[in-house]
Specification:
- This protein is 37% helix and 21% strand.
- By secondary structure, the chain is of the alpha/beta class.
- It has 2 domains: 1-61 and 402-444, Urease, subunit C, domain 1, CATH 2.30.40.10; 69-389, Metal-dependent hydrolases (TIM Barrel).
- The strands form 4 sheets. Strands 1, 2, 3, 4, 5, 17, 18 and 19 form an 8-stranded mixed β-sheet that branches. A 4-stranded parallel β-sheet has the order 6-8-9-12. A 4-stranded parallel β-sheet has the order 13-14-15-16.
- A hairpin with a 2-residue loop joins strand 2 and strand 3 (33-39).
- It starts with a strand and ends in a 12-residue tail after the last helix.
- Bound molecules: zinc ion.
- The site of zinc ion (ZN) has 7 residues, from loops.
């Protein structure tokens, strides 16, 4: 079997149940399995491939469980004032008369390729995708995910995939309020396709593709589809990721539609269990806008074995904060990380999280860098029920990434992990491997035309931006919805 060795000045190794910093280390793997992680020169003498990464941090590949597989939309919707924000949702009229796919299937395939390339370039090795459904006629078609799986396999990432489905859509009512408009038959068809995709993923017999159930957001699903999802997940023993506990609007809608809290609805439909991954998970009893104190929600999440996918960068940019990383962790909730929005940079995300936690708790040590690094590696692996991921030790899968630390702009080095989070970015990723196979090489993705993708993605972004106007309750065009920061420069005559 082919044997590969990577050496680096800093290795985040795994030893006796936890990460450990190894100075001047080497990692050796055969096929897809690590066989040696230890001091330089201590591994097998004969290897087929040898790479010295120099002044780099070699660590487990990043696990992104709310991974942006879309074109950036945060650049458009994270700064909208109150009079424009409702216009960025579908209007009730658009739901009834105007819904359509903004992109053709081929264009969607380009969007996915662009986004998956971004994940790989940012050092992600394992991902579970998220994309906005705002630009679609409904949610995610089965065929689109089949194509995405092929793109993912070509790039070489480890994917947890399924078509997103929903029974309803958040809409802006004519008076500017919020409601959910339902098309229950589409919800049923979506769940059927999602189960069909589990069969497709299994039939690929590729360890890099695992089928999962990805219903959209809790308020957009009927109780029937939530129950059907829980039953399918139990029957097939697959994971479910469901966006919920995201905001007070969601909480109000669930109360109105179901007469309970989102957590109550999860319990009632059989979803609250160790197969469930909840992105964001912000709005529970202890959140200041709910009760501002712990009344047992965290214990309920921990006892059920739920994993929370914390997305600090998205939280920050939409003006939110988890209350708090330390409290969730102390309660025993599995914490994993997601990027959720552009840029899919978990290094910046972790650093943002460390500092948001300081604000939330009023303490400098509220959520130290190492706790975030654990969430991005071991936490993600635990959420996926994959003890062979997220750690560099013999017997684990060879999923790893190297970040260069030798640029003068990286500053002076103290502890390599803490310094890197404070001063660095995931753009420093130079090499990665998934299941022992190279993905990122010298900062590039062999076989992927990055300049071409960049050009095509820009054109698709323009198309996406222009289409907001047709969904806006007030039919304002893109120029009105997205005014520039400063007025355009005009020559005076
Ligand atoms: Zn999300």
């Amino acid at each position: 079997m082919r044997r590969t060795r990577w050496r680096a000045a800093h290795v985040l190794a795994h030893r006796r149940g936890g990460h450990a910093l190894l100075r001047d280390g080497e990692v050796v793997w055969e096929g897809d399995t690590l066989v040696y992680v230890g001091p330089r020169g201590g591994g097998p003498a004969r290897v087929d491939e040898d790479l010295d990464l120099g002044e780099s941090l070699l660590m487990p590949g990043l696990i992104d469980l709310d991974a942006l597989t879309d074109i950036d939309h945060l650049v458009l919707d994270s700064w909208a004032p109150a009079d424009r924000a409702p216009g960025l949702q579908w209007s009730a009229d658009h739901f009834a008369h105007g819904r359509r796919d903004v992109f053709t299937p081929d264009e969607r395939a380009t969007v996915r390729e662009y986004a998956l390339a971004q994940l790989a370039l940012h050092g992600v090795t394992t991902y579970m995708p998220i994309a906005s459904e705002v630009h679609s006629a409904w949610a995610e078609p089965y065929d689109e995910l089949v194509r995405m799986a092929e793109t993912s396999r070509r790039i070489g990432l480890r994917a947890y995939l399924g078509p997103a489905y929903r029974s309803g859509v958040n809409v802006t009512t004519p008076d500017g309020g919020r409601d959910v408009a339902f098309d229950e038959e589409r919800g049923r068809a979506g769940l059927r396709d999602a189960v069909r995709f589990l069969d497709h993923a299994a039939a690929l017999r590729d360890p890099l593709v695992t089928g999962v159930l990805l219903p959209c957001r809790i308020e957009t699903l009927t109780e029937e589809i939530l129950r059907g999802t829980a039953e399918a997940a139990a029957r097939r023993d697959v994971l479910v990721r469901l966006h919920c506990l995201q905001g007070t609007t969601e909480r109000d809608l669930v109360a109105r539609l179901h007469g309970t809290t989102p957590l109550g609805l999860l319990a009632r439909t059989g979803l609250l269990g160790d197969r469930l991954l909840i992105p964001h998970g912000l709005v529970i009893d202890r959140h200041p806008s709910v009760h501002g104190e712990d009344r047992g929600d965290l214990a309920a999440l921990a006892e059920a074995g739920v994993s929370v996918i914390h997305c600090p960068q998205t939280s920050l940019r939409y003006g939110q904060v988890l209350h708090s990383f330390a409290a969730y962790r102390a309660a025993g909730v599995t914490l994993a990380l997601g990027t959720d929005s552009f840029p899919p940079d978990l290094i910046r995300g972790m650093d943002t999280g460390v500092h948001l936690a300081k604000l939330a708790e009023g303490r400098a040590d509220a959520a130290p860098a190492e706790h975030y690094v654990e969430a991005a590696t071991l936490g993600g692996a635990r959420a996926l029920r994959r003890p062979d991921l997220g750690r560099l030790e013999p017997g684990a899968r060879a999923d790893l990434v190297a970040f260069r630390l030798d640029d003068i702009r990286d500053g002076v080095q103290d502890d390599p992990v803490r310094t890197f989070l404070l001063n660095g970015t995931a753009r420093q990723a130079t090499h990665s491997a998934v299941a022992g196979r190279p993905v990122l090489t010298d900062g590039a993705l062999p076989g992927t035309d990055l300049p071409g993708l960049r050009r095509r993605a820009q054109a698709l972004f323009e198309k996406m931006r222009a289409a907001y106007g047709e969904r806006d309750v007030l039919r304002r065009d893109a120029a009105e919805l997205f005014p520039p920061t400063f007025p355009p420069f005009e020559e005076t005559p």
